[in-house]
Amino acid sequence: MFEKSSWIRLPRNVLIGHGVLDRAVEAIDELHLTGRPLIVTSPTPREIAAGRVIDQFGDRGVEPAVVVVEEASFEAVQGVIEAARSEEAGYLIGIGGGKAIDIAKMASDEIGSGFVSIPTAASHDGIVSGRGSVPEGDTRHSVAADPPVAVIADTAVLANAPWELTTAGCADIISNYTAVKDWRLANRLQNVEYSEYSAALSEMTAEMLVGNADSIKRGLEESSWIVAKALVSSGVAMSIAGSSRPASGAEHLFSHQLDRIAPGRALHGHQVGVGSIMVEYLHSGENGRWSAIRDALASIEAPTTADELGLNEEEVLDALTSAHEIRDRYTILGNGMNDRAAREAATVTGVI
Ligand SMILES: NC(=O)C1=CN([C@@H]2O[C@H](COP(=O)(O)OP(=O)(O)OC[C@H]3O[C@@H](n4cnc5c(N)ncnc54)[C@H](OP(=O)(O)O)[C@@H]3O)[C@@H](O)[C@H]2O)C=CC1
Ligand SMILES: O=C(CO)COP(=O)(O)O
Ligand SMILES: [Zn+2]
C-alpha cells in the first residue's frame, strides 16, 4: 500500500530587486496578516533598513513593536516570544542577517504567527528556509520552523553591505555540493530520508552560482541579485526536503565546531566554504573536485585557507576531528577523523 505523504511549506511572496524594501508594507498587506507587527532586528540592520519599514507602517497609522537582538540564542528567541505576547503582536518581521531572521523565524513558529523575512545581507541561505539554527552549549540545533510567508530582498541594501557578507552567502551555496554528497551517502548507508528533487535543486543552485562567478564582483548590484536568487533557491530546497540536509553536511559540522572553538572569528559562509574544500577531498580523494571548489571560492574572493579565516592549524584540526560529535547527522566523517587524517586532508588541500 502507498503511504507516503509530504507537506512542503514555501513563502507566498518573494520580492527580490532594486528598491523593493520600499514596497515591504505593500507586499505584507497582500498577505492579510492581522494584528500589530513586531520587528525583530539587530543593531546594524536596525539603522540601515528597519527604520524604512517602520516609516512605511507609520504612513498607514501603524506603529510596529521593535526588538533588537544581539546574538543568536534560545534566550533571545524567548525574549522575542515574551515581547510578542506583551505587545500583542499579530506577526513578526525579521530584518537583518542570519541572527535576526533565525530568531524571528523560531519565535513566530512558537507563537504560531506569520513571519516575514527581510534580509539585509546575502550572507546565508536561511533567509527563506524553514529551519532555524541556534547554538546551545556543546551542540547546535537545526530547528524546524515555518518558513517566512514573504521574503523581501532589496539588492541595493544587500549590495551596500560589507562585501564579505555576500561572499559568505556565495560560499554557503557552493557548500551545497558536499552537503548533497553527504546526504546521498547517509541515504545509502543509513536510510536517511532523501529527496531527489531537493538534492537536484540544491546542486543546480550551486552550479548556477559558480557558472555566474564572473558577474559576482564587489560593488556590482547584479552580484547581490545573483546571490539572493541562489539563497532563495537553496532555502526552497531545504523546504522541499523538510530538513537542512541539501545545504548542510560535514562542512557545516566543521563550521559549527569552529563557532565553539573560535567564536566570532569568521563568518558562517566562509567557514563552510573552507570546510567544503576538505570534505570534497574526503569524498573524492587527492585528484577529486576539491580544487574546483577551492578555485570557485577564490574567484569570488571567499577564503580558502585557515589563515584567511583568521584561524591557526590547531583550531582547524580540532574542529575537523570533533565535527562528527556536534550533531547526530551521518556524513563522510563517519565516527570521526583521527589527527593524522585531519592533518593530511587540511594539508593536501592547502587549508593549513
Ligand atoms: N536557518 C538557516 O537555515 C541558516 C542559519 N544560519 C545562521 O545565520 C547566522 C549567520 O548569519 P550572518 O548573516 O552571517 O550573521 P549576523 O546576522 O550576525 O550578521 C553578520 C554581521 O553582519 C552585520 N550586518 C547585517 N546586515 C548588514 C548590512 N546591511 N550592513 C552592514 N552590516 C550588516 C551584522 O550586524 P549586527 O551585529 O549589528 O547585527 C553582523 O555583525 C548564524 O547564526 C547561522 O547559524 C546560517 C545559514 C542557514
Ligand atoms: O547553514 C545552514 C544551511 O546552509 C543550516 O544548516 P544547519 O542545519 O547545519 O544549521
Ligand atoms: Zn549554511
UniProtKB/TrEMBL annotation:
Protein name: Glycerol-1-phosphate dehydrogenase [NAD(P)+]
UniProt-annotated binding residues for Zn(2+): 172, 252, 268
The species this protein was found in: Halalkalicoccus tibetensis
Residues binding glycerol, per UniProt: 125, 172, 252, 268
Localization (cell): Cytoplasm
Enzyme Commission number(s) from the entry: 1.1.1.261
Signal peptide: none
Keyword NAD carried by entry: yes
InterPro entries: G1P_dehydrogenase_arc, G1PDH, Glycerol_DH
Pfam hit, one: Fe-ADH_2
CDD domains cross-referenced by the UniProt entry: Gro1PDH
Pathway: Membrane lipid metabolism; glycerophospholipid metabolism
Annotated keywords: Cytoplasm, Lipid biosynthesis, Lipid metabolism, Metal-binding, NAD, NADP, Oxidoreductase, Phospholipid biosynthesis, Phospholipid metabolism, Zinc
UniProt cofactor note: Binds 1 zinc ion per subunit.
Binding of NAD(+), residues: 98-102, 120-123, 129
